[in-house]
Structures are given as structure tokens and as C-alpha cells.
Amino acid sequence: MGKIMKALMYDKPGRENSSIRQIPYPECGDDEIIIKVMSASICKGVEHDHDNGTGTDLAKYPVVPGHEFAGYVYEIGKNVTEFKPGDRVTADNTEYCGDCYYCRREESNYCPTFGSLGHNINGGFAEFVRLKKEKVFHIPDTLSFNAAALSEPVACCLHAVDRSNLKYGDTVVVFGAGSMGLILAQLYKASGAGRVYMIAGASSKLELAEKMGIETIAMDRNDYSVHENALLEKEPLGVNLIVDATGSPKVCEHSMKLLKKGGMLLQYAVVHSKEKMTLDPNLMFNNELTFSTSFCQSHNFGRAVDVLASKIVDGDALVTGEFALDNFYDGLDENVKDRSSIKVIIHPNTEG
């Protein structure tokens, strides 16, 4: 019998079809690296979809979830020269063919065979995970494994900032104070925005945003005019950019009228409810408004590690819970049900 390891495995969507079990240890190829996972972060939307029976759009089962992780290099293939066992690392979860029309244009996000660890390739909720060598990134000793595990969401948020066409001095509003909203707000604040506002309903998260230097407005879910008027009192002409990190069609529909002429609404969050939204074409035409979207990332991991290492994004401040791999389901339930929960970290291994 070969080597085995502990992992969370979903045979198909739904908690009843999953368990924490022993599975084969991954075989390390000549151009591959095995990482001993020290911290793996729960992506609430994705892990909840695995767990509630919906499944993710990219998923192929059976699969080990977990696409946000960091740890030590444990084993290297014979062609690996830039890493050695014991190095502290994180890793890009994406895989693509490299040869299609989009990959040849350096638009790998659109690759028709786009792969992702934790979706259709075994991911990081395991003691060990296998990566291609080019997907692994060194992290400094000053960066905790917990924070480094957030490199993937930070990389996705960097892609959103790139798609925003932000100009120096622009005014930005981020709707939603979850992990993505808080990462986005920190990035925009450091990217030349004049003022950055966050509109959300969870008071503890708004308090954290304020500590990060973000101006906040409490959201009234029963009467949107309350927070809309509060914003327009501060910004009578409206704002240049609105980023939706809630996934609520209602938020997007109502937000367009808060934009300055020439403004952009960027939908970042996935609409998990599959609801449709209606945008006013006359308002968009008359004010030359843009509706855009941002989906995952490619080739942003180096920048993401730099952003976390420099504390432009405070990864440690976003961690609100930590659990051993054996207690994964407790961690997921906390992340889904506790409105004050932001990022929950799973530890497949302990130090030493």
C-alpha cells in the first residue's frame, strides 16, 4: 500500500456525500512540487456550494476542495531548481492549456479548459497538495501562513482593480463588507482613489473597515434611500466607481443612479441566487455609464504576495476563526452562519 494522507473529499455535491478521510498521497512529477499545507482558507461562497448540494460551476467530482492555501515545500521533482524542501510558499490554484486562442493572447482567464484546484483538481483541504512548479511562489518570513493563504482572493481583487480603469482621485464605493469587500477597499485606497466608501450592514465589519481607513455608511436593507441619500450628501454629483461585492441584483439595480456621468458599476461578487437584474438603458446611455464584471484571475499571484507582505492588505486582520481539518464542517458553519465571520482558516497540519 502506498503513502496516504488526510483530506476532505466530496464524492459529489452535498455534505452527506463528503467526509474527512485517508486518500492516496499525490505522486510528485518531475516538474511538480508537493506542499505541506499549514493554512487553507475557506472561500465561503465556493465551499458552501460544494456543501449545500449545488456544486460549483467549475467543479468535477470527486474532488478535494480548497483553492486558498499556504505552507512548506515538502517534496520537489527533479527539474525543480527554484525551490527546496522547507521553503515557505503559497500557490496559484489556476491551470490552463497555454495553447488556445485566449492563452496565446495572455488571456488565460478565458481558456475553455480552465482548471482550478479545489474545483476540478484536488485542492488544499488536505495535508499535502500537488502543484506545477510555475504555480508556486515564495513568501517572506514576515508573512504568516494565514495571511499568505489569502493570496488567491487578493489576486482576484487585483484583477478587479485592473478592470476598473481607475483614475487618480476617483471616488469609489464598495458595497459589502465581507472578505472581498474589505480586500477591494484596501486595494482601491492604495491605488490612487481620492475617497473610498464602504456601504454594508454588518456593524463589526464596518468598524474593521474604519480601522483600515475606509469611510463607512450603514446600509438600510429595508429602505435603500437612507444610505443612498447619506452618500449623496457627501458626494452630490455621485461617484466614479461602484464595486458590488454583495452579489445582490437589487444592489446593482439601485446603484447605477449613484454614479457620476461617465461612471462605472463593476460587479465583482457572484450572484449565487441566479436572479436576473434590470439596468436602466436610458440612464446608462444619457450618462455614458458602464456596467462591467470581474471573474477570477490569472498571473496576479506575485503582486498579491507583495500586497500582503507590504500590509497594503492586512490579511491577518481578516481572519476571524481557525479550525483543525477534522473540524472543517464547524469552521464552514461558522463562516456561513455568523455574520461577524470574515475569513476562516483550516489547519491540515500543525507546526513541526
Overall pLDDT confidence: 95
| SSE series | EEEHEEEHEEEHHEHEHEHEHEHEHEHE
The residue ranges in which pLDDT falls below 50 over 5 or more consecutive positions are: none
Count of DSSP helices? Answer: 11
Proportion of beta-strand residues: 25-35%
How would you sum up the major sheet? 7 strands, mixed
Helicity level, as a percent range? Answer: 25-40%
State the separation between the terminal residues, measured CA to CA. 26 Å
Number of beta strands: 17
Overall SS class:
alpha/beta
Shape: globular
Q: What Rg is obtained from the alpha carbons, in whole angstroms?
A: 21 Å
Notes on the structure:
By secondary structure, this protein is α/β, with parallel strands linked by helices. It has helices at residues 44-52, 101-104, 145-148, 151-163, 179-189, 203-211, 224-234, 249-255, 281-286, 301-309, 328-337; strands at 4-10, 18-24, 32-41, 69-76, 88-91, 94-95, 115-116, 128-132, 136-138, 171-175, 195-200, 215-218, 239-244, 259-267, 290-293, 319-324, 343-347. The protein contains 11 helices and 17 strands. The strands form 4 sheets. Strands 3, 4, 5, 8, 9, 16 and 17 form a 7-stranded mixed β-sheet that branches. The protein has a 6-stranded parallel β-sheet with strand order 12-11-10-13-14-15, sandwiched between helices. A two-stranded antiparallel ribbon has the order 1-2. Strand 13, helix 8 (249-255) and strand 14 form a beta-alpha-beta unit. Helix 4 crosses helix 5 (179-189) and helix 4 (151-163) packs across helix 10. The radius of gyration is 21 Å and the shape is globular. The two termini are 26 Å apart.
